[in-house]
Amino acid sequence: MLSARDVHKHFATPAGTLEVLRGVDLEVARGETVAVVGESGSGKSTLLALLAGLDVPTRGRVLIAGEDTARLSESALAALRARNLGIVFQQFHLMDGLTALENVRLPLELRGDADADARARAALAQVGLAERASHLPARLSGGECQRVALARALVATPGILLADEPSGSLDERTGSAALDLLFDLVARFGTALVLVTHSERLAARCARRVRLVGGRLQRTDGAA
After folding, report:
1. For residue 58, what is the domain's CATH number?
2. pTM for this prediction
3. Burial of 185 by CB count in 10 Å (0-12 exposed, 13-18 middle, 19+ buried)?
4. DSSP assignment of 22-41, as one string?
5. 17 has which bridge partners?
6. Nearest to residue 135, comparing CAs of 164, 75, 172, 94?
7. How many structural domains compose the chain?
8. Rounded to an integer, what distance in angstroms lies between the CA atom of residue 34 and that of residue 85?
9. How many CB atoms lie within 10 A of CB 23?
């Protein structure tokens, strides 16, 4: 479903070249749950952006459903993401001018799904926001915005779900419910999950854990 093969990512800075990723190899199979852990600044979010096709490696290859992201046009890459990926980031990335319902409906509309409205309403109900469907993001709390973002990622039942600290903006009770929903989707629909988190406790809910150290991934075995 998702592959990173000898992935390097470098950034130019005034002090010289910054090497964030140095030969990352990762294979994620259908239905597999993988947690990526590491210290702040270790490159976890950079890796997630590459896996999502939002950036391209300096060297190496990222394949989504067998397609090399670096070889696709912007339109082809957007279509590939729409078919295969759901993404949840810490900062929500909601469209300010769209209501909660419209934000959730957007990935379905991009795919041309005829039942987009009904499915979006059902997804909002799953995260406890049915009564906020007509509200713009500015009228929602941070926790509510994160739940809208989660509903948007889940609504199209993607083959691959990428999540960057998905409960980071939620209180403990609401965050726990959102995570239960996320893992329920994985179990029910055979969705592959790549979860970036600082929490060893959350990482332990995944079948496999890897740690970013020195720009490379290391397997982590045993309980957290």
Report:
1. 3.40.50.300
2. 0.86
3. buried
4. EEEEEEE-TT-EEEEE--TT
5. 12
6. 94
7. 1
8. 15
9. 16
The widest CA-to-CA distance across the chain, in whole angstroms, is 52
**Tokens (6 digits) for 5:** 């093969």
* Amino acid present at 136: L
* Per-residue pLDDT tens listing for the chain (224 residues): 899 999 999 999 999 999 999 999 999 999 999 999 988 889 999 999 999 999 999 999 999 999 999 999 999 998 898 889 999 887 788 999 999 999 999 989 988 899 999 999 999 998 889 999 999 999 998 888 888 998 899 888 889 999 988 877 677 877 787 788 788 877 877 889 999 988 888 899 999 999 999 999 998 754 33
Domain span holding position 96 = 2-220
Give the position of tokens 């130019």: 12
First to last CA, the chain: 26
Altogether, the residues listed in the chain come to a count of 224
